[in-house]
Structures are given as structure tokens and as C-alpha cells.
Amino acid sequence: MMTLTHSSDMVQDRRQRMSKNKRKIPVKRIVLIGIFAVLAVLITAIVINVYVGLYADNYIVDNIKALPKGVDAIIVPGAGLNSENKPGTVLKDRLDGAIKLYKAGLSNRILMSGDHGDIYHNEVLAMKEYAIEQGIPSDNIFMDHAGFTTYDTMIRARDVFTVRSAIIVTQNYHMYRSVYIARSLGIDAYGMPSSIRIDQWKYVPLETREFFARVKAFFMVLFKSEPYFGGEEIPISGSGNATDD
User: Fold this and answer.
1) Angle in degrees, 0-180, between the axes of helices 123-133 and 89-103, rounded to the nearest 10
2) pTM of the predicted protein model
3) What is the H or E stretch that residue 100 is in?
């Protein structure tokens, strides 16, 4: 009897251990699946970033003489205002680059695109006023009041302002995404990086943000996303005063 009881206990103990092992297997599988999923997402993001960078690099130049003349517009994406509601350092640098190209005769239109989300924050008006102070005629400055994102800036340049060719002025870290989006939307766009140097302590966070922003831009282009706001056409060939608020 003791032998049978002991044998029965051993069988029961073995079953309990097997049951525990079975319960552990799904957890291990879930962990492995999670690891592979994260790796797959990371690899996909890296591939997309490399693709966007290589694609856009063919159309980014740092020599004015290498840029096409007579494009429909020079596009300046917004970059924020300072505490006095004037263009901040980064935005001022972009504006200076655009003004330089305008005065060099590469285009007779500048499209200022930025955030005018409320009456207290009118980024594009500050951009226009700065350009006017530098001698650019008001009539040749267009304001896109709904350029909330880089994607919105480019798709509205095409659909609202009928831009078909352009030179984009922004910092180098932001240029690849800008040119990629514009060209993917059918705009014959080239990029001219502005001259400001980003501090090293700022560069890493900016590049990290751009890493994910390029992935987002890739899928927005792929799925033909709509901008936050559309609008009736305001041809870039007309008067920029038509965009005055």
C-alpha cells in the first residue's frame, strides 16, 4: 500500500510540474513575439529613414548656382516665434535664406507656411512682416495660415497654392523630410539648407524627433493623408495680398 501510495504521489507531482511548464510556455512565447515585434518595427523604421534620406539627398544642394531658376515659389516652413511674437532664431535663419534666394532671382514668390491656430499666435504674419522689412514686396509674399505640419505645408502648397515647382528653405536636419514629402506629392522640389548651426546638445533630440517624424511622413504619403484644413485655390501666380487675414 505504501508503495502504491508513493507511486501515486510521484505521478501526481509529475503532472503538477508538467502543468506548470505548460503554463510557462505561452508566457515565453509572448515575450519572444514581443521582442521580435519590437525588432521588426525598429528595423522597418531604420529602413524608412535610410530610404527617405537617400531619396531626398539627390535634390538637396548648398550652392545657389546649382538650383533651378524660375520656380513657382520659395517655401519656408514655420519654426516658432519668440516671446515678442517675432521669428525665433531658427525661423529667422530660414527666412534669411529664402530672402537671399528671392533676391538672387530664383523665384518671385515666397510661401510662408506656419501656425495661425488662434488670434494670439500668427506665425505667418510675423514671417511676412520680417520679409517686408528686408525689402520683399507684400504682393509677392503668400501666407499659408494652416501649415500646422510639414506634410500640411507641402500638400497645401500643391493643392491650395497650385505650386508645382519649389525651393524649400529649412535646416539640414529637417530638409530630408521636407523634400521627400514635397516630391512624393508631385512638386518638383529642391532643398537649400539654411546656414544656422544647431548646438550639439539640441541636435540629438532633434534627430531623434526626425527619426520618428520621417516614418510618420512616409506613411502619410503612402496612405495619401488629407491635411487638417483644405481650402479654395489661391494661385501662387496671383497676389500674395489675397492671403492677408
Assistant:
1) 50
2) 0.85
3) helix 89-103
Q: Summarize pLDDT for 139-190 with one digit per residue, the tens.
A: 999 999 999 999 999 999 999 999 999 999 999 999 999 999 999 999 999 9
Q: Is 1 domain-assigned?
A: no
Distance CA 79, CA 118 (A): 16
Q: Say if CB 143 and CB 127 are below 8 A apart.
A: yes
Containing domain of residue 138, as a range? 64-235
Residue 17 in any domain: the answer is no
For the segment 218-238, what is each residue's pLDDT rounded down to a tens digit? Answer: 999 999 999 999 889 999 999
Grid cell 522689412 in the structure block, residue: 133
Residue 162's CATH number: 3.40.50
Task: Please check whether residue 16 lies inside any domain of the structure.
Answer: no
